[in-house]
Each structure stands twice: as C-alpha cells, then as structure tokens.
Amino acid sequence: MFVLLVIFVWWFNNFTLTETNVCFTDEKINDIITIVQITDLHGAEFGKDNINLIRKIENQNPDLVFVTGDMYTNLSGNNGRETAINLLKSLGERFTVYYVNGEHDNDDTEFFNEIKASGVNILNYENEIITVKNTVLHLYGINNVYYTDTFDLHNAFVSDSNNYSILLAHSSNFKKFAEFGIDLTVCGDTHGGMFRMPLVGAVYDGNTLLPERYGTYIKGTYTLGDSNLFISSGLGNYPFPIRFCNRPEIAVIKLAPA
C-alpha cells in the first residue's frame, strides 16, 4: 500500500493540472480582462492531443493567451516538438495568442513559421498596442535566453506611461524590467523550483539551496515600485518528473480597474 501511495503522490504532483489565479489592478484598466498564461510545456501531454489542457484553457474563456517559451525540449530528436506545434496551432485557432520563446525553442525558424501560420503572434523583440474591450494594452515581447550586464529595454523599445504595459519574457530580469516602467511582466523558466516544501518554497534552483530565502524570484507574484512580476511554474517536468507541492499549472491572470 505504501508503494502505491508513493506512486500516486508522484503521479498526482507531476501529471495532473491545476490553475493559479492572480489579479492586478490599475487605473489604466477599464474592464475585467482574463489572460491565460502557459509556459515550459517541454513537450508534455495532458490527455490525447493535450485535450485536457485545451479544455482547461477554454473553461476560462480568456481574452488573451500568453505563451512564454520552452514548449518543447531541444535535445536529440527535438523531444515533444510536434506536440508543441499541434498545441499551439489548436490554441491559435481558438484564441488570441502571443508567444515568446525560451532557450529550448529558440532559433527554430520552421517552428516559428508553423505556429505563426495558425494565428499565433510572435513577439521576438516586437511590441504591439491592442484594445481589449475598452482597455488599451501595450504588449512587449523579448526572446532573451540570457542577460548581459548592459541589458536595457530602452535600447529596443520606447516606454509607454499612457497605456497598461505587459512584457512577455521567458526568464526574469525584474529590476531592469521595472526600471523601464513595465506595469506587468509575465515569465516562466524556473518551473517553480520543481520540488517545493510548505513554508520553505523551492528546495533547490540548480544553484542554491532554499533560493527564495535569498530573494530569488521563483514562483508567484513580486513587486518593485509600481511594477509587478508574475512567474508561472509551468507545465513540464524537464529534466526529470520530480515536482512536489508544485503541480503543472495554467495561470489565470485577471486585470481589473483600480
């Protein structure tokens, strides 16, 4: 019985979906806007052709879907690449989707072209002003897989204080994002630390034990001045399925008037 219990707990923590709900308010927002973020799929499947994941997103009736990279694992054979393409095509046909890549799905022109043909908007150092209901949003996207000491969003974009601004980035460089004046940054990459413990958070982030005790941004919502950061722990299990207290998630982000 104990072995079966351990197997069930492992399976439940690594292969069943949950959702995380957060809300951000601002005087520049005039409506309730629903955004679903998915990230770090690493080629995983939740039901045949990811139907369980798609249904979970559909249930939110999102105004926008943000995809923040590492949708497949770029190892020998490009593990999960077709799974990622099929999912993104399905989402592009159903919703307004914006995508930025991570380090695994980087520099794959064929991949980009396939998902773009299905209606997915790719924001690789591009920005777009859109209107959702009666709210104007200024979307920015970057495709950095690492950051140099000289990184500065001012080198690529003009900041916008008139409209609510959202930055899509695979990994965080929050201090620099806040200095630019982004209202909300949406990231992935960390997998939430994979293995988490109650009251402790992430046990190890690849470099440091208990990294959140040292102020490392791993999972959830953070604030610097007037700028907010949200990091989703994502969907996949790369490099190993060792999630604990950190199930695969879709993030449901609500924007609301102040």
Structure notes:
This protein is of the alpha/beta class. 21% of the residues lie in helices and 27% in strands. It is built from five helices and 14 strands. It has helices spanning 2-15, 51-59, 81-94, 109-117, 174-180; strands spanning 18-26, 33-38, 64-67, 97-99, 121-122, 126-132, 135-141, 164-168, 184-187, 196-197, 201-202, 220-224, 227-231, 249-257. The strands form three sheets. A six-stranded mixed beta sheet has the order 1-14-2-3-4-5, covered by helices on one side. Helix 5 (174-180) links the parallel strand 8 (164-168) and strand 9 (184-187). The protein is globular, with a radius of gyration of 18 Å. The N and C termini lie far apart (52 Å).
Please provide a brief summary of the model.
By secondary structure, the protein is of the alpha/beta class. It is 21% helix and 27% strand.
Topology:
Elements: H1 2-15, E1 18-26, E2 33-38, H2 51-59, E3 64-67, H3 81-94, E4 97-99, H4 109-117, E5 121-122, E6 126-132, E7 135-141, E8 164-168, H5 174-180, E9 184-187, E10 196-197, E11 201-202, E12 220-224, E13 227-231, E14 249-257
Parallel strand pairs: 1-14, 2-3, 3-4, 4-5, 7-8, 8-9, 9-13
Antiparallel strand pairs: 2-14, 6-7, 10-11, 12-13
Features of the shown structure:
27% strand, 258 residues, 5 helices, 6-stranded mixed sheet, single chain, alpha/beta
Label the overall shape.
globular
Distance between the termini: 52 Å
Number of helices: 5
Q: Could you spell the SSE succession in H and E letters?
A: HEEHEHEHEEEEHEEEEEE
- Number-wise, the strands total 14
Q: What does the largest sheet look like? A: 6 strands, mixed
Q: Which percent range describes the beta-strand content?
A: 25-35%
Structural class: alpha/beta
Helix coverage percent of residues?
A: 10-25%
